[in-house]
Amino acid sequence: MLDEIDQKIIDILKKDSRTSFVKIAEEVGLSETAVRKRIRNLQDHEVIKRFTIEVDEEQQTKAIALISTKAQIHTPSISQEFIRIEGVSHLYETTGEYDIIAFLSTTSIEKLNQTLEKIRLTEGVIRTNTSLVLRSWF
């Protein structure tokens, strides 16, 4: 269970994952050592799964892939294959006609096609339906 300080640390890191331990410590009122221990604990318990960067949206080719899978193959095992594919930025297992929704982000249409081909060739995939993202708002 996260306490208020852990949540503050997470909020700071969400804004800028490169924020120094010293700066975080100043903002939450702890020592640098205590902040390091808390962040390590959050990583060990997979509350913090990874540190990443955002690339300018204008520089990315994005798509959404809707994926149907075979009922005989456990969906989480297929998802585990997808998250290893370069270009898959987010992955959701869903209900309805499609079992998995993958958000894709690459540097070109060519790389997007390579990502989609790897998805399509994954054992257990029946079909995909992909839409290219033209514009996004946040």
Largest sheet: 4 strands, antiparallel
Q: Indicate the CATH architecture of the largest domain.
A: 2-Layer Sandwich
Strand order of the largest sheet: 2-3-1-4
Radius of gyration based on Cα positions: 19 Å
Low-confidence parts: none
Describe what you observe in this structure.
- The protein is of the alpha+beta class and about 140 residues long.
- The chain has two domains: about 5-45, Winged helix-like DNA-binding domain superfamily/Winged helix DNA-binding domain (Arc Repressor Mutant, subunit A), CATH 1.10.10.10; about 55-130, Lrp/AsnC effector binding domain/regulation of amino acid metabolism (RAM) domain (Alpha-Beta Plaits).
- The chain contains five helices and four strands; from the N terminus they run H-H-H-E-H-E-E-H-E.
- A four-stranded antiparallel β-sheet has the order 2-3-1-4, with helices on one face.
- Strand 2 (about 90-95) and strand 3 form a beta hairpin.
- Helix 2 (about 20-30) crosses helix 3.
- It is elongated and about 50 Å long.
- The two termini are about 30 Å apart.
Short description:
This protein has helices at residues 4-15, 21-28, 32-44, 75-82, 109-120; strands at 61-69, 88-93, 100-106, 125-132.
